[in-house]
Amino acid sequence: MASPIPVKEKKLMDVKLGELPGWIPMRDFTPRGIAGAFQRGYYPYYNKYVNVKKGNVAGISMVLAAYVLFNYCRCYKELKHERLRKYH
């Protein structure tokens, strides 16, 4: 049964695996489109974890953890060579 929503208007979580190759080229990969995608993700995150009445460090700590993981992945090659180097 075909979906009543066109593939172009579906969100990533609603796309079936068979529709994925046709869905990806329909996305907007211009700088404005990428900035819009970040903005659409940022505001729900901010409102859910940062801008709350009884806030805690969960929202900020997730951003910090993502930053640390990103930098570790970026520098893994150099860190691997440091680990295997002999110091005597």
From TrEMBL:
Membrane-spanning intervals of the chain: 57-76
Q: Which GO terms describe its molecular function?
A: proton-transporting ATP synthase activity, rotational mechanism
User: An example of a Gene Ontology BP annotation on this entry?
Assistant: proton motive force-driven mitochondrial ATP synthesis
- Localization per Swiss-Prot or TrEMBL: Mitochondrion inner membrane
Matching entries from Pfam families are given as: WRW
Q: What is its main location?
A: mitochondrion
Q: How does it assemble?
A: Component of the ATP synthase complex composed at least of ATP5F1A/subunit alpha, ATP5F1B/subunit beta, ATP5MC1/subunit c (homooctomer), MT-ATP6/subunit a, MT-ATP8/subunit 8, ATP5ME/subunit e, ATP5MF/subunit f, ATP5MG/subunit g, ATP5MK/subunit k, ATP5MJ/subunit j, ATP5F1C/subunit gamma, ATP5F1D/subunit delta, ATP5F1E/subunit epsilon, ATP5PF/subunit F6, ATP5PB/subunit b, ATP5PD/subunit d, ATP5PO/subunit OSCP.
Q: Which family does it belong to?
A: Belongs to the ATPase F chain family.
What is the name of the protein in this document? ATP synthase F(0) complex subunit f, mitochondrial
